[in-house]
Amino acid sequence: DVSECSGARSLWPSQKALPESKVSSRALKMEMVSRILGVDRSAPPMSFYCAGSIREEDGVRWHGCPYCSKEFKKPSDLVRHIRIHTHEKPFKCKQCFRAFAVKSTLTAHMKTHTGIKAFECQCCLKCFSTSGSMKVHMRDLRPYMCPYCQKTFKSSPNCRKHMKTHSVTGGSADRPNTSARRR
């Protein structure tokens, strides 16, 4: 939900998204957005939102980044992107004081403080507080082990293919090492 000032074509979050819903003057709204984005207020106010950074193509309005050539359909995506350039991290953890550019990242981070680990790896039964940390774990997991040399693999077909390299007739390589443990 975006409002537009027809004079300067400046964008800001809808009235209800502003910290103080009673703010109504154009100048105050522009000041708030420039603070949120960390824009140098000595420059012409909100100059990067003025004509030229918003273009319309096939009925779609594209909002351009003032720092690079990227464009976004949603102003909220542009605001999130601009934080990459400005290093602004407005969402702060009240327990450990880490800061984040995106609110959903803070929300996921907060789960690490609860001690609850609701996501369980189906291979090793290790538990994680977020699905993202479990996905990283799964990406590095190598649950398939060669019984001949204990080399591990991410997939069963790769392990089977490797095991064929051990098939030397008559030698000890034909028999798997059953005393070895899986990692």
Automatic annotation (TrEMBL):
Annotated GO CC locations: nucleus
Record domain C2H2-type: where: 63-90, 91-118, 119-147, 144-167
Keyword line: DNA-binding, Metal-binding, Nucleus, Repeat, Transcription, Transcription regulation, Zinc, Zinc-finger
Composition skew (Polar residues), residue ranges: 166-183
Keyword Transcription assigned: yes
Annotated Pfam families: zf-C2H2, zf-C2H2_4
Span list, region Disordered: 160-183
Keyword field contains Nucleus: yes
Gene Ontology MF terms: DNA-binding transcription factor activity, RNA polymerase II-specific; RNA polymerase II cis-regulatory region sequence-specific DNA binding; zinc ion binding
Source species, domain of life: Eukaryota
PROSITE patterns to which the protein is assigned, alphabetical: ZINC_FINGER_C2H2_1, ZINC_FINGER_C2H2_2
Localization, UniProt: Nucleus
Physiological role: May be involved in transcriptional regulation.
Family to which the UniProt record says this protein belongs: Belongs to the krueppel C2H2-type zinc-finger protein family.
PANTHER family reported in the protein's UniProt record: ZINC FINGER PROTEIN, ZINC FINGER PROTEIN 236
Protein name per its UniProtKB record: C2H2-type domain-containing protein
Record organism: Oryzias sinensis (Chinese medaka)
